[in-house]
Design goal:
It contains 19 helices and two strands. With 456 residues, the protein is mostly helical. It folds into two domains: 204 residues, MFS general substrate transporter like domains (Growth Hormone, Chain: A, Up-down Bundle), CATH 1.20.1250; 193 residues, Growth Hormone, Chain: A (Up-down Bundle). It has a two-stranded antiparallel ribbon with strand order 1-2. It starts with 10 loop residues before the first helix and ends with a strand. 52% of the residues are buried.
């Protein structure tokens, strides 16, 4: 029988381990900004602000490379191996950063570190979705992706505690300690059941499915869809499968959505304090605006994921992006402080929060054989937005245009993203699995459950 066995292990263990890897990602992305003032004063380096910006861009390029390489690799050799290798790679990169002797050395080390980070995230999203109960996939994914915010908070606290007395190198050395997660991953992080079935390891897949109470019948139905597609002349897996007529149009739409979300999120994260001051709002603390932005992002990740599990990602993403656009339009006007903070939180919800929902939607949209590649491609190419956002904001701030044009420039991508999600085909891989399994499911009168005949 292929009916799910009583749950012996919790998928939350998988979520927690994936969460810890995303914490490392959030830590690394924030720690560089925390060390830039010290790097500019490093004796003998003669580092300029433009050089510091270039090094920051190299990290993003490394992330793009990691996203694009790790997705198909995870689809081919398994998500568990790629995640552990990515954590080791990232930790080694942090250690190398701590030993940097010049700006050029540090830039190369940051690029190297970015590749390791990019190698972790697609597998973390795919594993979380695959080990979550089918009716709670998005909330599990949302909880896991909050690791970005927690990692950023940890980086800020470590910088406050250690940077003044111990210098910038110790912050990267702390990042290298993430390697201690690898033994826990080795013993407690299981391989994806979908990946095991795809590689012909049926016995091992059945054992993992029983241990975690997963529905292996649904996994086999998913593989049947892939075999049917292959028999009809479609490519087998990974990027080759994504480039077929069935999947390429939706992938291109997802990439544009992710570019829009990243453009808004990174643009606001970079320029929000400056924009608030130029708009004439009370100065307060720059961190206050960024903190409220992150609070809105976390609300979007958790609350949006809960709604997505109930109503579907598509129905939640559209209003979330529109909330982001409306919030940005509100910020372009002179409003009370309370309304201002609500609008800043709404902007975080509609940009950073929507990004995590979009990644979960991607993972739910595609079968396991190309899921990692789809998430990696969406995240990797979506990083174009993370480069465009700060650049667009900087161009408008440095031009003669009024401040409100910056908010308009960030509101337009939010509207574009909402429209694209509306145009997105509504069906997901679960819908295809349900169609394949429907004729094969019959009542089990003894157990009251379901019996799924193995597809032949």
């Amino acid at each position: 029988m292929d009916s799910p066995a009583p749950r012996q292990k919790s998928g939350l263990v998988v979520v927690m381990l994936c969460f810890l890897t995303i914490v490392a990602d959030g830590y690394d992305l924030i720690v560089y900004g925390a060390t830039v003032p010290s790097l500019l004063d490093e004796p003998g380096w003669e580092m300029t602000a433009s050089t510091a910006g270039l090094i920051g861009s190299w990290t993003l390029f490394g992330l793009m490379v990691g996203f694009l390489l790790a997705g198909p690799l995870a689809d081919r050799v398994g998500r568990r191996k790629v995640m552990m290798a990515g954590v080791v790679w990232f930790s080694a990169g942090c250690a190398i950063c701590a030993l940097a002797t010049s700006p050029e050395f540090l830039g190369a080390a940051r690029f190297f570190t970015g590749i390791g980070l990019g190698g972790v995230v697609p597998s973390a999203v795919a594993l979380t979705m695959e080990f979550a109960p089918r009716n709670r996939r998005q909330i599990y994914n949302g909880m896991m992706l909050t690791g970005y915010s927690f990692g950023g908070i940890i980086a800020a606290l470590v910088a406050i505690a250690l940077l003044p007395d111990h210098g910038w190198r110790v912050l990267y050395a702390v990042g290298a300690l993430c390697v201690i997660v690898v033994p826990a991953m080795y013993f407690w992080l299981p391989e994806s059941v979908n990946s095991l079935v795809a590689r012909g390891k049926d016995d091992e897949a059945a054992e993992v499915a029983r241990a975690y109470g997963l529905d292996i019948g649904a996994v086999r139905a998913e593989q049947l869809i892939q075999r049917t597609a292959t028999a009809n002349g479609e490519k087998a897996s990974g990027f080759r499968m994504l480039l077929t007529r069935k999947y390429l149009p939706s992938l291109l739409l997802f990439v544009v959505v992710c570019i829009c979300a990243q453009l808004i999120g990174y643009g606001l994260s970079t320029w929000l304090p400056v924009l608030m001051r130029e708009a004439g709002y009370p100065l307060g603390s720059s961190l206050q605006f960024l903190l409220v932005l992150q609070v809105g992002a976390v609300i979007g990740m958790i609350g949006g994921s809960m709604l997505a599990d109930r109503y579907g990602s598509r129905r939640v993403l559209v209003p979330f992006f529109l909330i982001g656009a409306i919030s940005l339009l509100v910020l372009s006007r002179k409003v009370d402080t309370a309304v201002l903070m609500v609008a800043v939180a709404g902007a975080g919800l509609g940009s950073i929060g929507s990004s995590s929902l979009a990644y979960g939607y991607v993972a739910a949209k595609y079968p396991a054989s190309c899921r990692g590649s789809a998430v990696g491609a969406s995240m990797g190419l979506g990083r174009i937005g993370s480069i465009l956002g700060p650049s667009i904001g900087g161009w408008i701030v440095g031009s003669s245009l009024a401040t409100h044009w910056n908010f308009y420039a960030f509101a337009v991508p939010a509207v574009i993203a909402a429209v694209i999600v509306i145009l997105m085909p509504a069906s997901t891989v679960d819908d295809e699995v349900a169609e394949v399994r429907a004729p094969e499911v019959e009542p089990d009168r003894k157990s009251g459950g379901l019996v799924v005949e193995q597809a032949g």
